[in-house]
Amino acid sequence: MAQEIRHLDPEGSTMKDDKPDFSDVQSGGSSTAPRAPDAPPEITTYTVVSGDSLSKIAKHFYGDANQWRRIWEANKDHVKNPDLIHPGQVLTIPR
Length: 95
Description:
By secondary structure, the chain is α+β, with helices and mostly antiparallel strands. It is built from two helices and four strands.
């Protein structure tokens, strides 16, 4: 059931509307709602299999084997030598 709204017209007499008048509302970017936090970055991992290299993995994920350094930089804490990765290692793949 619609709420009855009464207001005064310019001459001072009471008018009855079935719906509220939003004709004077202006749009804008302001809001009282708190801003939603940015989504956390997507984390992708990859488990190394026999025959893999960082360049092969980069080709798979980025389409460019020359992006292997991105993977190495993200995994330097447990991949000391980018030419020596081993089956079973779990690598973080940055996006």
